[in-house]
Amino acid sequence: xxxxxxxxxxxxxxxxxxxxxxxxxxxxxxxxxxxxxxxxxxxxxxxxxxxxxxxxxxxxxxxxxxxxxxxxxxxxxxxxxxxxxxxxxxxxxxxx
Length: 96
Known about the structure:
The protein is mainly alpha-helical.
């Protein structure tokens, strides 16, 4: 009588990671590309923060530099490209 119709919805079943993968794989190529690039950018920023000589105490200032410091932006682009190449190499080598 008081059943919740959401209890039987497939979207709420299973692992959130598997559901996320399903959404990404079935989304439009444009939307999936944007989300994957956003994640790649976030990973690049965190890796740069981790590898920095002086660990940033204020991450907002660190992230601000991506848009306002040309040298920092260039290193960010290089890091993002490096992560993309690493990811491609891993996928291609395991695909053989």
